[in-house]
């Protein structure tokens, strides 16, 4: 059962519409299931967290929060070196994103922007088989650079204790506390606050459908900020015959490794290259059988190779898909990139697999999915900054601009108070 190879053009909607629609994740059923959990945490606080943790994780909590600095860890020095190298690169990339407040004189008045950090953040870290300690780096570092002062890690408890890597990362990143509660109940605790868990203004980090549903629902209620609505992970690859088909197949499979609902879409103009990549995928299933069923479901059910008549059509489809990850492996990488309008993060050239951005290069791997890159951006320092605009109007400017305010406020029917609030300042002195 090889990966589907489809001949497409811009008019063959029946061929590729399902991939555009497939990028959306329906959280309605998950939302129905988590609503009672959210309400219970809101009304019963710590008691609900303890009860749900026992029900879902089989662990009776004696303490809901931990101070990471109080826990001894013993991390392999080579693992430490890897994460410290990643930390340094991520910090360097995000330091370049820092904002400076500014002001400018416009029509005689001093106007400007003051940047202020959000007060608090929760970073969600899944447990068990879905352990992603690299996401802790990605969530905490830009927030620290932005100036967020109160950061807590939310993670489900484990029967054999919390993973040491999460504790050590919390220590070196300056995380205030670890909240040992997972799932929708953990997200609810950050949104509402409980006796033990301080309320956060913002939450980021990957999780299952129930975590995603809780984040989206609570954000929709205006109770907490989130990075972006989450869906299955995805990669789109634009490649021509200059690319290595084995490398491209590996990149598609690295995405499939996230889960059977993940998708990997290859866009090419070369039918022969498409067949070579398909053959490499089949070889890989034999040579690397770990998580085989998961990878095959992802590749056979949610992925495809689309053959377009020209490179411009490949670019067009990529912009329609607005993928989480976009790899460009062509003879004209810079030209293709110049035409890209929507993507979470772009990986240019043959030596830039998504895995480099996932771990070590320095860019952030918390990215918009489900075509979200049409309106959302990757997690960064800006995510945790608020723009406060300000103005200081001079008496001379107020008097000069009042006639315009008078006409505009009269047009809107607000002249009695809006217009008057300006007029009195032209007549009276302080």
- Average pLDDT confidence is 94
Strand order of the largest sheet: 1-12-11-10-13-14
- Under CATH, the topology of the largest domain can be stated as Rossmann fold
The number of helical segments is 16
Helix content: 40-55%
- Can you tell me the number of structural domains? 3
CATH superfamily of the largest domain: Nitrogenase molybdenum iron protein domain
How many whole angstroms does the radius of gyration measure? 25 Å
Count of DSSP E strands?
Answer: 15
The secondary-structure class comes to: alpha/beta
How much of the polypeptide forms β-strand, as a percent range? 15-25%
- Measured between the Cα atoms of the first and last residue, the distance is 82 Å
**What is the CATH top level name of the largest domain?**
Alpha Beta
Uncertain ranges = none
Q: Report the major sheet.
A: 6 strands, parallel
Can you tell me the CATH architecture of the largest domain?
Answer: 3-Layer(aba) Sandwich
Shape summary: globular
Function: Catalyzes the sequential NAD-dependent oxidations of L-histidinol to L-histidinaldehyde and then to L-histidine.
Cofactor: Zn(2+)
Binding site for Zn(2+): 255, 258, 358, 418
Family: Belongs to the histidinol dehydrogenase family.
């Amino acid at each position: 059962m090889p990966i589907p190879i489809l001949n497409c053009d811009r008019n063959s909607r029946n061929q590729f519409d399902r991939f555009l629609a497939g990028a959306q994740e329906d959280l309605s059923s998950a939302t129905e299931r988590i609503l009672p959990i959210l309400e219970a945490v809101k009304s019963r606080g710590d008691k609900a967290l303890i009860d749900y943790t026992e029900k879902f994780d089989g662990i009776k909590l004696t303490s809901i929060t931990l101070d990471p600095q109080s826990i001894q860890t013993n991390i392999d020095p080579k693992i430490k070196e890897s994460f410290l190298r990643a930390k340094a690169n991520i910090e360097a990339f995000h330091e370049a994103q820092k904002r400076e407040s500014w002001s400018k004189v416009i029509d005689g008045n001093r106007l400007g922007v003051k940047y202020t950090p959000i007060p608090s953040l929760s970073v969600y870290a899944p447990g068990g088989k879905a352990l992603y300690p690299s996401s802790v780096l990605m969530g905490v570092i830009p927030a620290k650079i932005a100036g967020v002062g109160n950061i807590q890690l939310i993670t489900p408890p484990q029967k054999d204790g919390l993973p040491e890597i999460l504790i050590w990362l919390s220590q070196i990143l300056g995380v205030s506390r670890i909240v040992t509660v997972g799932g929708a109940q953990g997200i609810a605790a950050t949104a509402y606050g409980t006796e033990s868990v301080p309320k956060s203004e913002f939450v980021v980090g990957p999780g299952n459908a129930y975590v995603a549903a809780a984040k989206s629902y609570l954000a929709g209620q205006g109770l907490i900020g989130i990075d972006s609505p989450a869906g299955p992970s995805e990669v789109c690859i634009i490649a021509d015959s200059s690319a290595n088909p084995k490398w491209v197949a590996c990149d598609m499979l690295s995405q499939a490794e996230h889960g059977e609902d993940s998708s990997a879409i290859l866009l090419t103009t070369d039918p022969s290259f498409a067949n070579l990549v398909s053959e490499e995928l089949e070889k890989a299933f034999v040579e690397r059988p770990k998580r085989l069923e998961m990878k095959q479901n992802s590749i056979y059910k949610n992925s495809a190779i689309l053959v377009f008549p020209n490179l411009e059509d490949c670019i067009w489809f990529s912009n329609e898909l607005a993928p989480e990850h976009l790899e460009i492996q062509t003879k004209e990488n810079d030209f293709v990139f110049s035409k890209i309008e929507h993507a979470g993060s772009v990986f240019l050239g043959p030596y830039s697999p998504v895995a480099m951005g996932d771990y070590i290069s320095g860019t952030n791997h918390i990215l918009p999915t489900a075509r979200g890159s049409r309106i959302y951006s990757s997690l960064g320092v800006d995510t945790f900054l608020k723009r406060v605009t300000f103005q200081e109007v001079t008496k001379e400017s107020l008097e000069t601009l009042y006639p315009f305010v008078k006409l505009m406020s009269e047009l809107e029917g607000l002249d009695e108070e809006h217009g008057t609030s300006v007029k009195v300042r032209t007549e009276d002195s302080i």
